[in-house]
Amino acid sequence: MRFKPGIRVAAGILAVIPLVGCGIAETGWRRLWSEEWTLHDSGERWVLGVPAAGRDFSSEGRGHELRMELLNRGQTSATVRLIGPDGEVEWSLGVGESRPVEIRRGRGRHRIEAPPDVVLGSPRLGRPKTEPRLLVVVLVDTLRADHVNPELMPGVVEGFSSGRRWRTAIANSSWTLPSVASFFTARPVLELSSAEGEMIGVPESVATWATRLHGAGFEGGAVVANYTIHARNGFAAGFSSFQVPDGRGSSAAPDGEWVTGEARRWLASHRGEDGFLYLHLMDPHEPYRSHSGVRMTVPPLRPLARHQREATAEESRLLRDLYAGEVRHVDGVVARFLSELPDSAEVVLTSDHGEALGEHGAWAHGLNLYQEAIAVPLMMRGPSITAGEVVAPVQLLDLGPTLLEICGVEPEEGMSGRSLLSGGSTGPLVSATFSAGPLRWAWREGDHKVVMRMAAQPGLGAEGRREFVAMRPLPTGSFHLDLASDPGEDRPGSIPREIMDRVGAAFVDTAGRMVTGMQLLLWGGEGPATTALEVDGVLDVVQAWSPSAIEVSQSSGRFEVRCADTHPVSAVALAPESVPAMVTVIEGDPHRLGLAPGQRVDPRTLEAPTAQGRGPALWWNPERALIVGQGEFITRDDIIPPASLSRKGKLNLDPGTSLREMEKMLILKTLEATGWNR
Q1: Rg, Å, the chain Cα set
Q2: Which of 247, 471, 550, 570 is buried deepest, with most CB atoms within 10 A?
Q3: Tens digit of pLDDT for each residue in 614-650?
Q4: Taking all residues of the chain, what is their mean pLDDT, rounded to a whole number?
Q5: CB-based contacts of 358: which residues, under 8 Å, 6+ apart?
Q6: For residues 231 and 3, is the Cβ–Cβ distance under 8 A?
């Protein structure tokens, strides 16, 4: 699937771009036709820009530079001409070819002639600045925090020796899509996930640190070796240029040398401009490759990751050595690139998640939330960063607002993260994964860590993530880990009573908010629990969260939920067939439900509990955007489907269509239209 020329960049981005009518903006550059910029692609490169044909502009000063990227989206070669008082310049482009342009233009009127399928990527006019601001973010996919050490990564360690290192940085998920989406948006993972966990991405209406920087006048570039971090999943928003291999259907990823090589070209074409650059390397990610020059047979990792068989001692040794070799390789690649950056650059290095190398019987990532899977490196250097180390736990969700503070840009309202330079988030750290099975959820506060592995709930909504991929998955349940006495997480125990309510409140703030409709929570108990409601109408269970079995029954207006063991929290998310149902509590703990016995209430009037207190355990989540495709979101009011569905026409939605029915229809329609599956 490719973007069509008419796909618009989020209006919120363009609304904050500083436009200048006649002169050059304070940043030194004027964006040309910025109110018309849309997202265009050639399969591997996405640019913000405009069709080239028939464009003309005026240059009011001598020696101004015209900079842009020419992109040929047509099926034949193309010729582009720039005609003005300085004469005529011509460029030839092959099919799918892109080319940076930098040319001085004199005062006067200029015209561009080109075929309809040629795009001008981020066209701008101005003079280079003598002291431009530059932010560089290097994310090394699947890099464990404990492998960033002087033995395996001496170049990177030395490259950040004058900066600051956070020794206990925790990713908010153990696999790429949710972790990077959370990092980009500074929002919890589950706020960006569909009810089933099938769809994860960045909606156009949600700001990222990149869109905020773009709105503040920075030009942004991205070179990404992981093709799931894609424009179709919403990650290109705010970047003037976004490059990713068109690798659908292939497990191969470009070497880090490709990433840094393309990054060098981007830096050269944007010298003298305020800019931000995102590099996403894949070298430590499986399939592991040998960089020793010796050919060898590498055991496939998937059967080990899914517990289809155990690794032999020789396989374990080989896989660990290969992973370490990948880390050494990426150290050389990244260290060389870091050494070339100016001293004025603000530079960050991190990862999206770690990698299990046999600990706890696990391999790879995405299936659990042990420290080896979610502990990531986090290092910064630059004029804004004071040297030192931070030992206290922090989360990757706070990195986006940190980047904005470094650049002097305010975060977007709605971002949950807070800048690490100002102390970071005050609440607990929450990580989650939906990958290859029902939800797994972890909470950390100081040295306390609680992990809940949800049980499959057959027949209770959430079709997509019922069964574990692993043949012998970790046991379901809720577990407490004391990281002070058990840093290896080998001795799980029962959850202390004194932290039970805080764990429940954090669960409500994350998983409890991801489904639209009425939410019912069974909180902080031990043993079975039952809650019964008298309901006007019929309720559909959209999601059921519990480490133990939940039973739901409806008969003659009575809706009853029974849970075998509530653990810290168990919950069901309910959607009425049409209008919200009036409810009356007829059985259960009235204090915890926030209602007096026999009180009749419209659940839409009940607000959710907060992390600061227990609050009511029956509430209504307002309607939110639903993910229905590769990062594409839609709400009930949107009758026109997302862009990927436009060629298939509108969906026929009756006024009484429930959210759950609508979501199913849209997901099926999207998959049909795109041919995409996980």
Answers
A1: 26
A2: 570
A3: 555 777 877 665 443 343 433 333 333 333 332 223 3
A4: 81
A5: 311, 316, 319, 320
A6: yes
- Please state, in angstroms and rounded to a whole number, the distance separating the CA atoms of residues 134 and 344: 7
Q: Can you read off the two tokens belonging to residue 89?
A: 């310049």
Question: Does residue 465 carry a pLDDT above 70?
Answer: no
**Mean pLDDT confidence for 540-548:** 85
d(CA 80, CA 115): 8
Q: What is the DSSP letter of 516?
A: S
Among 283, 295, 228, 294, which Cα is nearest to 255's?
283
Q: Which residues face 81 on adjacent strands?
A: 90, 113
Angstrom distances, CA of residue 570 to CA of 440, 465, 600: 13, 17, 23
State the SS3 of 261-278: HHHHHHHHHCCCCCEEEE
In angstroms, the Cα distances linking 620 to 193, 306, 588 are: 18, 37, 18
Per-residue model confidence (pLDDT) at position 673: 42
505-516 pLDDT per residue, tens: 888 888 887 777
CA distance 471 to 455: 15
Measured CA to CA, the distance from residue 166 to residue 379 in angstroms comes to 6
Q: Of 540, 561, 545, which Cα lies nearest the Cα of 456?
A: 545
> At residue 634, what is the residue type?
I
Largest Cα–Cα separation, the chain: 84
DSSP state of 193: B
Q: What is the pLDDT of residue 669?
A: 47
d(CA 462, CA 545): 10
Q: Where are the alpha helices (DSSP H) in 270-352?
A: 302-305, 313-340
| Cα distance between residue 52 and residue 50, in whole Å | 6
How far apart CA 575 and CA 49 sit, in angstroms, is 42
Strand partners, 428: none
Task: State the Cα–Cα distance between residues 334 and 37, nearest whole angstrom.
Answer: 33
The amino acid at residue 493 is G
For the chain, the residue count is: 678
What residues contact 603, with CB distance under 8 A and at least 6 apart? 518, 580, 581, 583, 618, 619, 620
492 burial via Cβ count (<10 Å: 0-12, 13-18, 19+): middle
User: In this structure, what token pair is assigned to residue 665?
Assistant: 């229809």
pLDDT digits (tens, 9 = 90+) for 306-355: 888 888 899 889 899 999 999 999 999 999 999 999 999 999 999 999 99
CA separation for the pair 525, 567 (Å, rounded): 6
> How many Cα atoms are found within 13 Å in the side-chain-facing hemisphere of 404?
30
Quick one: DSSP state of residue 7?
A: P
Min mean pLDDT across 276-285, 559-568, 654-663 is at: 654-663
Amino acid, res. 143: L
Say what the pTM is: 0.86
75: left (phi over 0), alpha (psi -120 to 50) or beta: alpha
Kindly give the pairing relationship between strand 558-563 and strand 550-555. antiparallel
In the chain, the amino acid numbered 508 is V
Q: Which residues share a beta bridge with 115?
A: none
| Residue 350 and residue 176 in contact, taking contact as beta carbons nearer than 8 Å | no
Angstrom distance (rounded) from CA 144 to CA 171: 11
Residues 44-76 as b or e (16 or more Cβ within 10 Å = b) = ebbbbbbbbeebebebeeeebbbbbbbbbbbee
d(CA 377, CA 170): 9
Which pairing describes strands 569-576 and 539-545: parallel, antiparallel, or unpaired? antiparallel
Inter-helix orientation angle 176-185/399-406, to 10°: 40
- Report d(CA 275, CA 291) in Å as an integer: 33
**Kind of pairing between the strands at 429-433 and 38-41:** unpaired
Q: Give the span between the Cα atoms of 235 and 100, in whole angstroms.
A: 22
